[in-house]
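Sequence, please.
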């Protein structure tokens, strides 16, 4: 499958907790091994295709559960419907870490380059490409290969970036805003004036949900996060109120804010007890959308709660739509670009790492120090 959203893929986290030593046992001591001041060995791949261009740098996973290395890779020719993109920014998703651990549902052949979403400019197109041309600015959803100076991908996985959208902000859009739009609009059918509760609100998808719900759908947002700092950020980004669920019951805190009536929509990316509290916070005919299990625990749904309040529980596996319903998938990306072009949304970049700092970027995400989108800059 080509690009899947991080949150949808978290359903494979049954045995994978937020535990850095388990995820990358060598990463903390090795993260400094690939840095701007000490990039380490940069081997050249042999056998560049005849007439090919210069080698380009890429983050390579040669062995599972080990730090990535920065290598020079020989380019290959583009296929008839393929496009070569000069990558400027690549998003860092937890799924990238899982695939490098061998804990993702897809296990690419070693060595490989992770990175499933990126922004850049078109360098070259195959003879049958009609959607983009050389020089176009694009975002891409490639599944793999984004953490490199160049990426070859099918034309169907690229969308043109409107003139007013910078490449950096555009790189935030595919997974985070695609997921947010899919969850809020396509699945929950969120209406103006409704109250939306979003968990892990300071994460990339959480902030995207706040942005779309508040500024596009005209909903009221309660942001739930695990620290006062993250709650403050969520409020700054548009939430009307916030709850720090590390300090007590999420259900009771939400009840104090909205009363016994509850919230209309929940977008949950945490799972476990937070999911159950959020479920119990729903109003009559409320809708809860399961986007992932960042907390590491998959909760069982008490079906009696669905019955008593006529509640709907549903899931969003954004990336699966690329294969099963491409028009819907493509529409979320088109809307994400449109909303940004119109100034209705403002993607939030939490931190940018250089390619040589890719292992530090992974560690930043693993240790839950990240807020908003974490990007790799290839320039």
């Amino acid at each position: 499958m080509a690009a899947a959203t991080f949150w949808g893929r978290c359903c494979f986290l049954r045995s994978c907790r937020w535990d850095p030593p388990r995820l990358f046992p060598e990463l903390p001591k090795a993260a400094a091994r690939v840095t701007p001041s000490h990039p380490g060995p940069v081997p050249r791949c042999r056998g560049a295709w005849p007439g090919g261009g210069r080698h380009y740098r890429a983050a390579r996973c040669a062995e599972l559960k080990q730090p990535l290395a920065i290598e020079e890779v020989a380019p290959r020719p583009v296929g008839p419907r393929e496009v070569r993109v000069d990558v400027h920014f690549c998003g860092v998703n937890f799924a990238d870490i899982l695939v490098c651990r061998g804990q993702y549902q897809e296990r690419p052949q070693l060595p490989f380059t992770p990175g499933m979403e990126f922004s850049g400019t078109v360098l070259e197109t195959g003879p049958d490409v009609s959607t983009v041309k050389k020089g176009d600015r694009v975002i891409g959803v490639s599944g793999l290969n984004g953490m490199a100076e160049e990426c070859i991908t099918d034309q169907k996985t690229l969308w043109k970036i409107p003139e007013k959208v910078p490449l950096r902000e555009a790189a935030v859009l595919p997974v985070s805003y695609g997921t947010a739009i899919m969850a809020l609009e396509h699945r929950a059918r969120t209406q103006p004036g409704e109250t939306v509760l979003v968990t892990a609100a300071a994460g990339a998808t959480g902030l995207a949900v706040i942005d779309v719900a508040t500024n596009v759908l005209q909903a009221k947002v309660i942001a739930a996060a695990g620290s006062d700092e993250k709650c403050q950020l969520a409020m700054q980004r548009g939430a009307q109120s916030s709850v720090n669920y590390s300090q007590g019951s999420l259900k009771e805190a939400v009840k104090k804010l909205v009363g016994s009536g509850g919230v209309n929509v929940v977008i949950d990316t945490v799972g476990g007890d937070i999911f159950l509290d959020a479920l119990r916070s729903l109003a009559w005919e409320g809708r809860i959308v399961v986007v992932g299990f960042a907390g590491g625990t998959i909760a069982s749904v008490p079906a009696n709660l669905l019955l008593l309040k006529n509640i709907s529980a549903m899931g969003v596996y954004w990336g699966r739509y690329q294969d099963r319903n491409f028009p819907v998938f493509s529409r979320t990306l088109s809307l994400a670009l449109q909303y940004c072009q119109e100034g209705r949304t403002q993607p939030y970049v939490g931190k940018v790492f250089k390619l040589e700092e890719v292992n530090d970027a992974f560690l930043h995400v693993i240790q839950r120090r990240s807020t908003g989108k974490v990007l790799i800059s290839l320039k």
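The two ends are 28 Å apart (CA to CA).
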